[in-house]
Amino acid sequence: MMMKKWTGVLMLMLIVVNAGAQSALRKMPKGFTAKEVGVIVTQRFLATPHPNFGSPKPPGDITYPEVCAWLGALRFAAVADSKLAVRLKERFEPLFTTEQRLLPKKDHVDHNVFGTVPLQLYVQTKEPRYLDMGLPFAVSQWEAPTGGKESHLRWLKMGMTWQTRLWIDDMFMITAVQAQAYVATGDRKYIDRAAKEMVMYLDSIQRPNGLFYHAPDVPFFWGRGNGWMAAGMTELLRTLPESSQYRPRILEGYRKMMASLKQYQSADGMWRQLIDEPASWPETSCTGMFAYAMISGVKKGWLPAREYGDVARKAWLALVGYIDENGDVREVCEGTNKKNEKQYYLDRRRITGDMHGQAPILWCATALAEK
């Protein structure tokens, strides 16, 4: 009887400790709350014309950094500001008419992720035209393309998307659109195949320390590349049913990565352009992605709040300090291809207002604002 009594007391103490750690993500100083920050960055998004990723020319289509920011803004508005939700919907309307030429082709992970935006609009509005536009971007990832290569067919025979590359950013681009298709339709095939793909990536490319090289032949832990993996696992875990056979393996990979990231967080709360390189510069897009993963993990119970609550809070407070008076995020690494040269990563340009940096701020704001 005494043992049961003490077990109950210990459980109560643990609940209290976890609740205290959770509160670290609920009470923010003025100017740092999810609502304040999310509104500023969403308004900035609405005021920004469609950008052309990596080029000063007018965009030929909607590029994936804008998609990531748009998705984040839509989700934030759904939980925090209905007026912004209306304006975000209005921004999309020309894609049915005068801007239809900007719809991406369904031929690459960076293009297919566009489907997340109309699918999210369908979830919010239940208007079938959004589903009709968005769902083919998810469906086509598991359909053999016309004139496809032999490697495409090999991946499909293995149950993977023909767009598989084993690049670390794939695991956000693929999982985001498949998870969104599942949310929109309720059809388990979308989330199950994304989860199977994630497990294959984890088994293939996660390093013993829980992090990921930019590519197998490029042995550097690039910040944003790892951010895509962290955010991709988070997207899946937020959506994947508890009964999924793949969930334990994804949780294992996620927790292993979070434990490693916790060790590499700088004293100022940031993570760096090269995660394990102390001489590297603090970079905002990866910090935002890691913060999003940890905020979600603490609030959803995937991570112990007493261990990660303060880590996530510290990252958020640091990150908000990089937002300027226009609502633009500073110190964002420019678009980066792989290269087996450390100095290449250290010398990448640091951009202000790039959608790679705007997007994860909105993901964090949404995760913080959710009940």
* Biggest sheet strand line-up: 1-2
**Beta strand count:** 2
CATH fold assignment: Glycosyltransferase
Largest sheet: 2 strands, antiparallel
GO molecular function: hydrolase activity
InterPro entries: 6-hairpin_glycosidase_sf (IPR008928), 6hp_glycosidase-like_sf (IPR012341), Glyco_hydro_88 (IPR010905), PolySaccharide_Degr_Enz (IPR052043)
Signal peptide: 1-21
Keywords: Hydrolase, Signal
Explain what the structure shows.
The protein has 371 residues and is mainly α. The chain has a single domain (28-50, 58-142, 155-369), classed as Glycosyltransferase (Alpha/alpha barrel), CATH 1.50.10.10. The protein contains 16 helices and 2 strands. The protein has helices at residues 2-23, 34-47, 64-80, 82-92, 109-112, 116-125, 128-139, 150-157, 170-185, 188-205, 223-239, 247-264, 284-300, 305-320, 342-346, 355-369; strands spanning 332-333, 350-351. A two-stranded antiparallel sheet has the order 1-2. Helix 7 (128-139) crosses helix 9 (170-185), helix 9 (170-185) runs parallel beside helix 11 and helix 11 (223-239) runs antiparallel to helix 12 (247-264). Mean pLDDT is 94; it is low at 9-17.
